[in-house]
Design brief:
The complex is a heterotetramer, with 2 copies of chain A (414 residues) and 2 copies of chain B (146 residues).
Chain A (H helix, E strand, L loop, with lengths): L1 H10 L9 E2 L3 E2 L1 E2 L10 H14 L9 H20 L8 E4 L2 H16 L5 E5 L8 H10 L2 E5 L9 H9 L3 E7 L11 H10 L3 E5 L11 H4 L3 E5 L10 E5 L1 H4 L12 E4 L4 E3 L13 H17 L1 H20 L4 E3 L11 E6 L4 H9 L3 E2 L1 E3 L4 H7 L4 E5 L6 H17 L3
Parallel strand pairs in A: 3-15, 5-6, 5-7, 7-8, 8-9
Antiparallel strand pairs in A: 1-2, 4-10, 9-10, 11-12, 13-14, 14-17, 16-17
Helix pairs in contact in A: 2-10, 3-10, 4-5, 6-7, 11-14, 12-14
Chain B lengths: L8 H8 L12 E6 L6 E9 L2 E10 L2 H14 L4 H5 L3 H7 L7 H25 L3 H12 L3
Antiparallel strand pairs in B: 1-2, 2-3
The chains are: A alpha/beta (414), B alpha+beta (146).
The structure holds pyridoxal-5'-phosphate (PLP) (2 copies).
One pyridoxal-5'-phosphate sits at the interface of chains C and A.
Chain lengths: 414, 146, 414, 146
C-alpha cells in the first residue's frame, strides 16, 4: 500500500501540464478527466519520436521507414488488444473515438440489418453519442428507439429491459459501462445475460470504463465495444471499436477508399481482410503509436491500482462535498457501484456560475449537460457541475475544490 | 477582472429575481433558441403595436449571466420602436452589466437572449413586411452575434 | 532566386528524420511524399506544446484550459481557411483525411440526393478513395458511376464529360486536382465551367494539389473540396472537407453524437450550427493544432516558391530518368501540366523489386498500384514505381536515385 | 542480408522464366487471390487424380520474389499426394530460395501462391470430401500464413 501511494505521488511529475498555473497564478487543479485526461511525457514523447524517426505511410511500401512505421502501428494494436483481453486482433478497428465507433456500427451493421418495426434499446443515462446515431438509424428505418429507465439512485431499471426483450423485436441493446455524469457502473453481467438468453446483440460504450478499471472483453460477452484514447492518457483523434468476429464478418464496409480494398475495378470491388476492411484511408498512425504508449503507462501502474486510487479519492470527495451546505450530489453513494465522477448542484446557483468561480481559483470542473440531455431531463435539471478524477489527482486538490466552493457560497450569499 | 468579480451584486440579484420573466399568452411573435454547448435555453415573447414593442417577456433556463443579460435586454427593449430594437448591439447589454471583457465561452451565455430577440424580430418582419433584403441583413446580424 | 535557393537548403535542418540513416548506414533519401510527407520540428513541437500546456476538451467548458484549447483549435481553422481562401469558416469541416471527407459527402449529401438512374462521374486516374465511395453509393441507389477517360498523355478526355453531361442525369462530377500517380494537373477550369453550365455539382479531391501549389477555393468554383494534413507537413489523422454553404445547408448529419447537436430529447434532436453539425464527438484537437503549424510553415515559404522548387526538381528528374536505358516514364512531359510525382517502369523488372533494391541504397520510393487500380488497368500495367518530391528534396537526392537504379540494372542484368 | 543480395541468380532467372507458368484448361480446381496492398495477383490451376496432384500451373502478376516462389512451389507440389500438399510450409519455399529472412512486407509476395494453393486445395476438398473439420483447419492454415 505504501508503495502504491508513493507510485501515485511520483507520477505527477510525468505530466508537464500539472506544473502549470492558471488565472491569477493559481496552481492548476484539473478535475475534468471524464471529458479528457492529461498526457504524460511518455505519451507526448512517443508521438514526437514517431515523427522524428519513423514517420511513413503504413502497409504498402517496401522501404525501411514504411516497415518500421507499420511495425509500431501494428504493435500498438496488439498492446491494446492485450490490455482489454481481445483474443483476435482482427476484431480491433481503429477509429477517431467512441463517437465514430458507435456511428460505424449504426451504418455498417445497423443499415443492413435494422428493419421497420425493430427495436433498439438504449438507456436514460447515455452520452449523446450513444443516442443520436440510434435516433438517426431508427428514424430512417421506421424502427423504434426505447430507453431503459433510471431509478432515483442513478441505477438502471432492468425490468424495462425485460419488457422490451419480451416483445421479440429487439435487435440491439446498447449501454455505457459507466455513466459519464453519475459515475454509475452498469450491471453489465445481468444485462448481457438477459440479452444472450434471447439472442440479442449488445453494444457497450466503454468510454468511461476502460480508463478507470480492468475491462475484460472476453469475459463481458458483448458483441460491440467502443472507447476513446484521449480519456485514458492517450492522444486526441484515436479510439477503438471492437466487434466479435462472427458479427464483424456480416457487416458492410463503412468508408470506401485505400487500404480497405482487395481489388478495385471500374464497376466492382472486393474487400480486404479484417480489420483493414474497416480502416479506409491513411489512418491516424502517430496517435495509434501514442495510444500504445498510454497503454504501456497504465499497464505499468496496473488497472486495479488505478481503480483503488480513484475509490479512495471519490470516497474522500463524497465525504467532503456532503459537508457543504446546500450541495446536492446525484447518483449512488455506494462506492462499489460508481466510478470517480461526481455530479452535483449547489443551491440555486447555476453550474456555469459555479464552474466560473471555482475556475478563478484554478479548479477545472465541467458544468452543463455533459452531452447527456436525456439524463438532464430525467433528473429534471438544466445542468450539473461535475468533478471527475484520474490517477494524478490528490486529496489536497479536492480540498482546493471545497475551498473554492466556499467562495461560490460567499459570492451568491448562500 | 477576476472570475468572481463578474458576479457583482446586480448580476446575483437579477439571477434570483429576473425582470420581465414569464410568458405573454397573446404575443405577436415568439422565438426559442438554445446554446448547443452549455444547454442554456431562452424563449422571448413580444407584443408589438404601432411598430413599437409594447410588451416583452422571457423565460427559460440559464446561468446568472444569461438571466441578468436577458433581464437587462428586455428592460432596454420595452417601449422601443422596431428600428431602435434592430440597432441594439451586444455592448448595449454587456456595458450595462460591466461584462465587456467576458471570455468567449461566457459571451454566448450573455448574448443568447439578444440572438433570440433579433430572431423574433426578423420572424415578425418577415410576416409583416416584404422588404426581404433587410430581413436577410437582420438574419445575418443575428447569426453573427457570436 | 538566390535567397529562395538558400531558403530550401536551410529548411532541411527543420526535419529531424532527414538526418537519419537506413539499412547499411545509408543516408535517407525520402521520395515518397505523395504518400505522406515528413514533419518539421515546428509541427512536432506544436503538438507537444499543446499537450504540455493547453490540453482540454473544446467548446464546452468554462475553465482556463478549455478556453485556451478552444482558441488554438479555432485559430487553426481560420489559418487553414485563409490558406486556401475559404471566405466562410462555417464551411470548413475537420475530418480524418481526404478519404473520410469524400465518404462524408457520399453519406450526408449522396444518400439523400442520389436516386435511381442518376449518374455520378469520376475519372480513370482517381485514387480509390474517390472511386469506392461512389461505387458503394451508386450500387445502393441503383444509380450509375461513369468514368472520364484518360488519353495516352495522361490527360483527361473532356469529350467524355460532355457526353455524360448531355444525358441530363449527372448529379456530381468528382475528380482530383492532381493525380497521385501521374502528377497530371486536371484542367479544372474547363471541367467546372462545363458542370456549372448545366448546374451539376463538382467535388475536387485536392489531396495532391494543396500541398504543392497555391489553391484558391473561391476561384475554383467547385462545391466540395477535400484534402489531408499529413501530405503537407501536418500530422496524421487530420484533414479538411470544405462544402459550399448553400450545399452544406441541405445535407443530413453524418455522425450523431456530442457537439453536433443543439437539443437532444428522447425521440428527436435538433442540430448545431455549421460547421459543428458535422463534427461529432471529441475532435482530433492536437492534430488540428499541428495542422495549423504546418500551414504557418508553408505560408512562410510561400506556395509559389514551393511550386517553383518542385518544378525545378521534377524537370531535373525527368531529364535524368530519361537517360536511363529501358526506363519508361508515364504521363505528360509538359512541366506546366504536372506536379512533382513521377511514375515509371524499368524494363521488365517489377516495381517491388526496383523499390526493394533502391531501398538498399537508402532511397524510399513507392511501388505498387498506388491505390489507383483503375488507372493501372488503363495503363495496362500491374504496378509502377513512383518517386515524388517535396520542399526538402534536392537534386543530389535525385542523383542518388539514379545511381541506385543503376544497381537495379546490374542485378537484373539489363 | 542486404536488399540487393536477395536477388541472386536463381530469383532473377525464375522471374524471367517462371516454371509451370500458364493455365490448365481442364483443371479440377482453380483459385485466385491477390495481395490487397501491393496488387500482386495469382491464379493456380490443379489437375488431381488418385488423390495426387498430377499437374499444376500458375499465372498472374507479381514481383520477382512472387514469381520465383510460385515457380518453386509448383515444382514442389507436382506429383505430391494431397496429404503431402497440405503439409507444405512456408519455409519449404523460402529456404529453397534463401529467403528465410525476408522482411514482413515482402513475405506476403513470397507466400501469396502458397496461400492460393492451400485455398485451391480446400475448395477441392470441400467439393470432394465431407470431413468438414479438416477443411476448417486448412482454411485457418491458409488464412494464417501471413
Ligand atoms: C489523390 C488522392 N486522393 C485521396 C487520397 C487519400 O488520402 P488519405 O489517405 O489521407 O485519406 C490520397 C492519398 O493517399 C491521394 O493521393
Ligand atoms: C460515456 C461516453 N460515451 C461516449 C463519449 C464520446 O467520446 P468521444 O468524444 O471521444 O467520441 C464520451 C465522452 O465524451 C463518454 O463519456
Amino acid at each position: 500500500m505504501q508503495s502504491t501511494q508513493s507510485l501515485f505521488e511520483n507520477l505527477r511529475k510525468d505530466f508537464p501540464i500539472l506544473q502549470r498555473t492558471v488565472r491569477d497564478n493559481k496552481p492548476l487543479v484539473y478535475l475534468d478527466n471524464a471529458s479528457t485526461t492529461q498526457k504524460p511525457n511518455q505519451v507526448i514523447d512517443s508521438i514526437s519520436n514517431y515523427y522524428q524517426n519513423h514517420n511513413a505511410n503504413i502497409h504498402r511500401a517496401v522501404y525501411a521507414l514504411a516497415e518500421e512505421s507499420t511495425e509500431v502501428y501494428e504493435a500498438a494494436r496488439d498492446k491494446i488488444a492485450n490490455f482489454i483481453n481481445i483474443k483476435n486482433r482482427q476484431e480491433l478497428i481503429f477509429v477517431r473515438g467512441t463517437t465514430e465507433a458507435i456511428n460505424l456500427v449504426a451504418y455498417a451493421w445497423g443499415r443492413p440489418f435494422i428493419k421497420e418495426g425493430d427495436i433498439i434499446v438504449t438507456t436514460e443515462y447515455e452520452h449523446h453519442s450513444n443516442i443520436v446515431p440510434w435516433q438517426l438509424l431508427t428514424q430512417e428505418k421506421g424502427a423504434k428507439l426505447e430507453y431503459i429507465g433510471m431509478d432515483d439512485n442513478g441505477e438502471l431499471i432492468l425490468d424495462d429491459l425485460d419488457k422490451y426483450l419480451a416483445t421479440g423485436k429487439v435487435k440491439l441493446v446498447t449501454f455505457s459501462l459507466m455513466s459519464n455524469v453519475l459515475g454509475t457502473i452498469s450491471d453489465v453481467e445481468k444485462i448481457i445475460e438477459k440479452c444472450k438468453a434471447v439472442g440479442v446483440l449488445t453494444l457497450i460504450d466503454g468510454a468511461q470504463a476502460v480508463p478507470h478499471m480492468k475491462v475484460d472483453i472476453e469475459k463481458l460477452g458483448c458483441d460491440f465495444f467502443a472507447f476513446s484514447g484521449h480519456k485514458m492518457l492517450g492522444p486526441t483523434g484515436i479510439g477503438v471499436l471492437w466487434v466479435r468476429k462472427s458479427v464483424l464478418e456480416t457487416m458492410s464496409p463503412f468508408h470506401g477508399g485505400g487500404d480497405m480494398i482487395r481489388e478495385v475495378h471500374k464497376y466492382e470491388t472486393t474487400w480486404n481482410d479484417l480489420p483493414y476492411k474497416f480502416e479506409a484511408g491513411t489512418p491516424n498512425i502517430a496517435d495509434v503509436v501514442g495510444f500504445g504508449a498510454a497503454i504501456d503507462y497504465l499497464t505499468k501502474i496496473g488497472m486495479d491500482n488505478v481503480r483503488a486510487h480513484e475509490i479512495e479519492l471519490t470516497k474522500y470527495a463524497l465525504e467532503k462535498l456532503s459537508e457543504v451546505k446546500g450541495l446536492h450530489i446525484y447518483g449512488t453513494k455506494d462506492i462499489s457501484k460508481r466510478g470517480g465522477v461526481i455530479s452535483f448542484n449547489f443551491a440555486d446557483v447555476h453550474p456555469h456560475d459555479v464552474a466560473q468561480i471555482v475556475d478563478g481559483e484554478g479548479v477545472a470542473i465541467r458544468s452543463g449537460h455533459h452531452c447527456a440531455q436525456v439524463l438532464m431531463e430525467r433528473l429534471n435539471v438544466a445542468a450539473t457541475s461535475r468533478a471527475s478524477f484520474y490517477i494524478y489527482n490528490t486529496k489536497e486538490e479536492i480540498d482546493v475544490l471545497i475551498n473554492s466552493l466556499n467562495k461560490v457560497a460567499k459570492v451568491f450569499k448562500l | 477582472m477576476s472570475n468572481a468579480d463578474i458576479y457583482h451584486e446586480m448580476i446575483v440579484d437579477y439571477s434570483r429575481n429576473p425582470v420581465n420573466y414569464g410568458k405573454i399568452e397573446d404575443h405577436d411573435v415568439t422565438f426559442h433558441d438554445s446554446n448547443p454547448l452549455c444547454g442554456d435555453s431562452i424563449d422571448i415573447d413580444l407584443k408589438i403595436a404601432d411598430n413599437k414593442v409594447t410588451d416583452i417577456k422571457f423565460h427559460g433556463k440559464g446561468c446568472a449571466i444569461c438571466m441578468a443579460c436577458s433581464s437587462v435586454l428586455t428592460e432596454i427593449t420595452k417601449g422601443k420602436n422596431l428600428e431602435e430594437v434592430r440597432k441594439i448591439e451586444k455592448n448595449d447589454i454587456l456595458s450595462e452589466l460591466g461584462l465587456e471583457h467576458l471570455q468567449a465561452v461566457r459571451i454566448k451565455c450573455a448574448l443568447l437572449s439578444l440572438k433570440v430577440l433579433k430572431s423574433a424580430l426578423y420572424t415578425y418582419l418577415a410576416d409583416h413586411l416584404d422588404d426581404s433584403q433587410d430581413i436577410d441583413k437582420l438574419k445575418e446580424d443575428a447569426a453573427s452575434l457570436y
